[in-house]
Amino acid sequence: MVTILDVARAAGVSKSTVSRVLDERLPRSTNATAERVREVAAELGYVRDPLASGLRRSGTSTVGVIVPRLTDTVMAMLYEAITEAAAGRDLFTVVATTEDLPEAQDKAVESLRRRRVDGLILTTARVGEPVDVGGPPYALALRTDGAGPAAIGDDRLGAQLATRHLIDLGHRRIGLVGGPEYASSARGRAEGYREALASGGIGFDPAMVAGDAFSIEAGEIAGRALLDRPDRPSAVFAVNDNTAIGVLAAAHALGLEVPRDVSIVGYNDIPVVSRLPVPLTTVRVPFRQIAADALSLVLDDGAARGETAVSAPTLIPRASTAPPG
């Protein structure tokens, strides 16, 4: 492997000169010595070692990402988006999973700190439980604790878009399949649902709400609770696509046809939902923008200022929604 010392010897300059000339973070020099150094480096096939240069800065050119689980398509999509954004800055990402358990998050943070990551992005925040990473700059993504720097989607707006879509179609009994109370995303979407009902002149009915997790299984259980009753809703808004898929399964098991008997809206727009037998109406989250914002918070001092970047979602109407009856 060609080193900076090899380039320095071949170019007849000091090692520090080569380091300054080839450091992409510094303004590009165009004098004869600099051009000679670049020419020799190219001839020798020198490739910058980001790990070695990172260690000299007491870092590793690595960003740690902590997610509940990678079997969750949303988390996998966000991690890929963060990796893509990091690559554009000549950085590498490493991921740790926690099963959404606070004690596992603490262990993941400590493990990544020992690996000297230059920053952390966490998608595991809980409302009212401030995150403490104990050192490196960090940002929260998708979910916030209400205190730390965060890059999130506008969950209230997305839920309002979904619920208003159903109201515009003529639905008046609209159920909600919610998520865990500790997740700011689930809370924001529940708030947006209630706000949209109120703006449409529809009273909030607690009996039209079920569910407390983001999984397909939880969605199916909640879907049965809402749909297996005489006064079932004519439409259901589920706070993520996994739970919406569960509601679809519940509707099928109960002999209900979507959207003739019940309309269903999800949230996130994971790839599979556009390929279902009944393509799912959903709310698209701008994962790439959220990933780029989270990385910027970590690397560009936004974390130190406690900033929050909010990205707007988009309603994607498909075949799972229609006028009632």
From TrEMBL:
It comes from Prauserella rugosa. This is LacI family transcriptional regulator. It holds the Pfam family LacI. Keywords: DNA-binding, Transcription, Transcription regulation. Residues 2-57 form the HTH lacI-type domain. InterPro entries: HTH_LacI, LacI/GalR-like_sensor, Lambda_DNA-bd_dom_sf, Peripla_BP_I. SUPFAM superfamilies: lambda repressor-like DNA-binding domains (SSF47413), Periplasmic binding protein-like I (SSF53822). It comes from the Bacteria. GO terms for molecular function: DNA-binding transcription factor activity; transcription cis-regulatory region binding.
